[in-house]
Amino acid sequence: MTNKTDKLINAVNEFKKLGDETSIAIHGKQYFPVAPRIGTLRRVLGSSLSITTEIISIDKETVVVKATGSIDGKVLATGHAEEKRTASRINQTSALENAETSSIGRMCSFLGVTNDQIASSEEISAALEQQDKKIQKALDELNLISHAGSFNQWLSNYKTFLGTLKEKSPIIYASFMERYSAIKTNLKQKGVIK
Which of 62, 142, 153, 166 is the most buried (most CB within 10 A)? Predict the structure, then answer.
């Protein structure tokens, strides 16, 4: 019979086989999202794995969540995460969900399901906030376009950023494209672009 340690080692080894295509670069480090970590754990450990979360504190400004990972009833790791509701636009409506996901990600890292980088919730929040600000700046600049030349320059300025956004954050990209399309339609109606 395989013991708990062997099961966990098998899960860690399976996770190490994942390629960088499932990771995201943040501040020059590769961060693996929580989903492939949990997916690997579930594939290898099945129902032997128990993940529980607990709200440690919650108020109008901050949410703190604790995640606990157990294998066959034995607690092997915990992870905590704090999210500030004002940290990003996403946190204004989803701070609890983000704190829960981050705490699970940290717990997975402490189980060893990591690429030796334990990304903090601050790193992830800062990266998302930075991305949010760049998206808003792009849309604000697009709204100010007054002729076709400036529209073409805008496309050139944001081509790389939008390509990366589409590849790394398809949901955010889709939301951006809805807003982009509305602004572009408005510019066409005004005769600014064809």
Answer: 142
Residue 80 DSSP SS3: strand
What's residue 54's pLDDT? 98
pTM of the model: 0.61
Residue 24: left if φ>0, alpha if ψ -120 to 50, beta else—which one? Answer: beta
| Angle, helices 148-168/121-143, rounded to nearest 10 degrees | 160
- Give the confidence band of 26 by pLDDT, cuts at 50, 70, 90: low
Query: Burial code of 125-148, b = ≥16 C-beta within 10 A, e = fewer?
Result: bebbbebeeebeebeeebeebeee
- Provide the residue ranges of all domains of the chain, joining segments of one domain with +: 4-119, 124-189
What is the C-alpha separation between 108 and 11, in angstroms, rounded?
11
Whether residue 49 is predicted with pLDDT greater than 90 in this model: the reply is: yes
Q: How many helices (H) and strands (E) does the chain have?
A: 6, 5
